[in-house]
Write a structure and sequence with these properties.
Blueprint lengths: L3 E5 L3 H7 L4 H22 L3 E8 L7 H24 L2 E6 L7 H14 L5 E9 L1 H17 L10 H6 L11 E4 L18 E4 L9 H13 L10
Helix pairs in contact: 1-2, 2-3, 3-4
The protein binds 3-methylbut-3-enyl trihydrogen diphosphate (2 copies) and magnesium ion.
Amino acid sequence: MPRHVAIIMDGNGRWARARGLPRIAGHRQGAEAVRRTVVSGLELGIEYLTIFAFSSENWKRPEREIDDLMGLLRLYLRAEIGELSRQGVRVRFIGDRNRLSRDIRSLIDEAERTTDANQAITLTIALNYGSRQEIVRAVRRLARDVATGALVPEDVDEAMFGRYLDTSEMPDPDLLIRTSGEQRLSNFLLWQSAYTELVYLPTLWPDFEKADLENAVVAFQRRERRYGASSG
Ligand code: IPE
Ligand code: IPE
Ligand code: MG
């Protein structure tokens, strides 16, 4: 079983368009798929589930859609945290919180606080997340530590650099799934995915079911991870 599964949840808009519905209808069904997927992850015994909810580039979308997405996020956090907590889900967030509205920041803080002791699965929600921005923020803090003398440049290695990233508390993803048939990372976990197995599924995110997760896991289990070594 992969310890850490990351998902680029894509295809909400196309799901809605195929039904003649507004994009928000796709995002709403996408939130349902998140609910299902957390349960599936728990049932499969996945330890870390990381989902891409809103990228740092998604601010380019029309204001109306951004408002809808943030509204949905508020609703999800208010309605689901209790249930997630009962299920033993530890909720974490990665991404730059500074651009998020004050009330969403406090919902995030509260979600992290109230679920902090849970151990069944860690659900990490990537929100206003972009991997390049994350790396630049890490470099900035690292440079500051060198400037103050807390660190000498010779101390910097991969493990130490990793501790400056938003993902410092989790292992790298073993399996990364992208739905909707797109085959790109769109600025998600670039550093962390150096040796992650990538699985692209044609399924649109609102249609994502436990069977899709299981299929992706089976595909993962058939792969031979070599990390640069010879095949054996
Ligand atoms: C994924 O669905 C959700 C977010 C990026 C917030 P999209 O909204 O990107 O759906 P498509 O790609 O337009 O179908
Ligand atoms: C990636 O999907 C971001 C999320 C799933 C939140 P996009 O739909 O924004 O990515 P591009 O624009 O197709 O690369
Ligand atoms: Mg998309």
